[in-house]
Each structure stands twice: as structure tokens, then as C-alpha cells.
Please model this.
Amino acid sequence: MLQISSVVKNFDKVQALKGIDLKIEKGSFFGLLGPNGAGKTTLLNIIIGFLTPDAGHVSIDNEPLIYDNLKMKKKFGYVPQEIALYQELPALTNLKIFGELYGVGKKELNKKIDWALELVGLSGRQRDVVKTYSGGMKRRLNIACSVLHDPEIILCDEPTVGVDPQSRNAIFEMLRRLNKEEGKTIIYTTHYMEEAEQLCDRMAIIDYGEIIAEGNLNELTNLLEKKETVKIVKNDFTLSKIEGLKGMGLINETEFYLELIPKGEFKKYALLFTKFQELNIPDDSVEISRASLEDVFLFLTGRKLRD
Ligand SMILES: Nc1ncnc2c1ncn2[C@@H]1O[C@H](COP(=O)(O)OP(=O)(O)OP(=O)(O)O)[C@@H](O)[C@H]1O
Ligand SMILES: [Mg+2]
Model:
């Protein structure tokens, strides 16, 4: 088990992490969710030893992590937020460099490279220079580079940002395989709550350097008084009624809907629909659906996760 205890990190005047406590079980697929600037990357950098915390510590199975030996470093595979590859070199050479960096023996390395290329679906493109790759292919190669040394824990920092849907699905699949078939612990940061819902068995929501909620999807949505969201189709008419709707609860405006978390008397559906009638909002503009993590975030912070 990876344990993060009372970790604090300040950058000049910014309190990036304000005392983080987390336990991440071996073999779990753990999501770290939060908006821009929440402290996700800082926390990952502390876990892998790139940054030293101002207070607190990280331990594995009750042993504090000391990062000055290769054995400890080899426990982690890190897929950074910014793609870190030698763009002018072929994929294969990149894989060799990363494998050697982590001390993988030559014979072992060739086997590992074949395995990693197959895993990320790039076997046919291994001799191509990285700069000719699409954004999604570079991401996949970056993941391949991070797993050659057989790490116990793989940390992925927003691996699907700027990635086409096909590569995104490929990334989901390869991470699932690493988790389910190879038993790797995955720590996955994202600000896409729907990704976390699909992938993670446990997650923590981080905001302004603090963990504001933790659990599995059920436990997190149970924080809401109501487990359903009220969605009103967004159009010129319903937008003209926004002031009236705001009086009924919290409104989260998404691309196609005005999502409502009802408050007070409007938690009762009878009163909710009576109010919709008063506002002349037709029944067929209203849908009731299962609450999402976005709703949990809105409920906990009063803010939307994404601007
Ligand atoms: N090297 C640094 N120097 C100064 N401030 C920093 C540094 N690294 C991070 N910060 C600040 O610490 C806070 C947390 O940043 P961090 O990169 O950890 O957030 P994040 O959750 O990864 O955000 P994003 O989703 O945008 O990647 C931010 O306010 C950021 O500006
Ligand atoms: Mg980040």
C-alpha cells in the first residue's frame, strides 16, 4: 500500500498542497481528480521523488520512501503531463534510451520493448521518427517508455489531454490491461470526471491543495442528498428562464443542458415539476438522470470543474 501522510508543499506564496493524506491500495486503479492548479502534478512529483515535500512523507508498506537508490526509483513508472520524448529519434531508440535509464538489462530490454510496443499498438511504427507521430501516438509511446522496467506503480498525469478519441480508447484499454492482467497499481490524474467514472475503482477529489472527498463512485455520489440530476435541455427559451431556475437550486451549464441540483422544497419532484409548469418549461425539456462526479464536485465546491 502506498501511503501519503500530511504532505505539504509551498511554492513561494502558493500553497500547492496543504496536508494531503491518502492511502492507495496495491493493485487499485486510483483517480486523482481536480481542476487546473489543484495540485495533482505536484503530488505526483512528490510521490516519485522529483520534488521534496516541505512536511509529511510518502511510504510503501509502512516503509518511508528514500529515493536515492535505483531500486526505489524502479518501483514507479511516470507518464508526465508534458510529453517527454526525443522527437528527432525513432520510437525504438526512445524505448532503448528509457529502458537503459532504468537499468533494464540488454536481453531483457528487447523482450520488454516488443511487449510494450504491442501493448500500446505501435509495433508497426517502431522505426518511425517520433515527430511524425500524432499526439495520441506520442502519448502511447510515452506510456510504453514508462513501463519497460516493470514498475509496481504507474502514475499517469492527464494522459488523454489533446488526444484523438481512438488513441484515448487505446490508452484506456492499455491501462486497464496493465491494471487487471499485470496487477499494476495505477494512479491517474484527470479533470475529466467521466474518465474517472469509467476507469477508476477509487478516487480522491483535490481542490486548492486539499482532498475534499474520497471513495468509490457510489460513495462519492452518496455525498449528494439526491442521487439523480435534473437536466433541462438548453435553448433560447430555457436560458431566458435561468433566473427562475437558479431560485430552485444550483445550476451547472453544460454544452447541451442546464443541470440543476435542487435545493429546499424543490428536492420533492412534485414541487419541482409544479415550478417547471409555472415557468412554462415543457415536460419534454426535462430529463432525470443518475448523478455524476461533476455533480459531486459542484455540490462540494459550488463551482464547475471546468471553466
Ligand atoms: N514550480 C512551480 N513554481 C511555482 N508554482 C508552482 C510550481 N509548480 C506548481 N505551482 C503552483 O502550484 C499549484 C498546483 O499546481 P499543479 O501543477 O500541481 O496543479 P495541477 O492540479 O496539476 O493543475 P493542471 O490540471 O493545470 O495540470 C498551482 O497554483 C501552480 O501554479
Ligand atoms: Mg498538472
Remarks:
- The longest helix spans residues 165-180.
- The CA atoms of residues 93 and 127 lie 8 Å apart.
- The pocket of adenosine-5'-triphosphate (ligand 1) is lined by residues 11, 14, 16, 34, 36-42, 81, 191 (CB under 6 Å).
- The chain has a mean pLDDT of 92.
